Amino acid sequence: MGCDIHLIVEKCDTKLIDKFAERFECCLPSPEMLQELHDMSIWTVDGIPTGHKNYKGEYSCPTCLNRNYDRFGELAGVRNRDVPKANSPLGIPKNASSSTKRKIEEWGLDGHSHSSMALQEACEIFINTEYPKQLQSLRQAAYKYFGVDYNHESELALYRIVFWFDN
Length: 167
What we know:
about 170 residues; 6 strands
């Protein structure tokens, strides 16, 4: 029996960040402040392209459908705990979108190792665990793996993935 990944791309509602920039007359807050704002912000899946339909007719990321245990190991220590850079599952984010929470609830006890991470970090992991190895920019990876296109690299910080596995 194999292990599958389920993944949802969420985008930060920038209203809180925009208010910060307006109040302090700057373009973007520091990385530390940005993380704090992300933790307080509302996340949504509205308007985010989500790849292709899978065999169940649901939208999902096209390259997330394969079982890549090196990737699963790096993402959350699932099925390959020998990966040197394995992350531990962080659980479901408290501020996950209602759509994401609903999808996770549908999986019930079959879903495990719930976690989330910044899209940039996810892109780096997906690039490093793709076989055959292909050189790709973060922008190419964001689009190829997650269906996210952006104009400026600073926009990448507005996205994250929420993911879990099932056996």
